[in-house]
Specification:
The protein has 168 residues and is mainly alpha-helical. The protein is built from 2 helices and no strands. The chain has helices at residues 3-17, 20-165. The radius of gyration is 63 Å and the shape is rod-shaped.
Length: 168
């Protein structure tokens, strides 16, 4: 059974079982409602149809523009992904450089420590040599002064003895 035939039977039964006065009233209300609906629909049909067609056209334009926007978004995504890959590669390289610099820094610090120890050792040896040279110089000057003093003392004593003895 179709839906229309079922509805028609329903209305026929209702109409058949209604009293005649209600049937006439029902028909008048139904006809006036249809006329009113037709008038309302007719007055808004031109404005509504223009809006419907423009909405359909605008919707179609939006739908037709979607593949271009999708392609642009895909390109933007690919570029962003490439930039991310480049940045991550640069980050990996930078981290490797940092590790290399840390290793080199540790090596230079150890070398610097050794050089500092060597410089302090050489400075200590230089101070010891300078002190030794100073002592030797002081001893040489003292020895020369003692020898000169000895000869002078002997000369002064001889001169004093000769003078006492009257040989002069």
């Amino acid at each position: 059974m179709t839906t229309n035939s079922a509805l028609n039977r329903f209305y026929r039964r209702e109409v058949l079982f209604m009293p005649k006065s209600i049937q006439g009233y029902f028909i008048r209300v139904f006809i006036s409602t249809c006329i009113l609906f037709t008038v309302i629909l007719g007055s808004t049909a031109n404005a509504a149809s223009a809006n419907i067609f423009s909405d359909i056209y605008n919707g179609w334009e939006r739908v037709s523009e979607l593949p271009g926007e999708v392609n642009a978004l895909q390109e933007s995504y690919k570029q962003t992904l490439e930039q991310l890959n480049q940045t991550s590669a640069q980050l990996g390289q930078a981290q490797a450089n940092v590790e290399a610099f840390k290793a080199q820094n540790d090596q230079l610090l150890a070398q610097n420590q050794k050089l500092t120890e060597m410089v302090s050792k050489l400075q200590t040896e230089q101070d010891a040599r300078t002190a030794t040279a100073q002592r030797i110089q002081t001893m040489v000057i003292t020895i020369v002064a003692l020898i000169l003093g000895y000869f002078l003392l002997i000369r002064v004593m001889r001169w004093g003895m000769r003078r006492r003895s009257g040989r002069l």
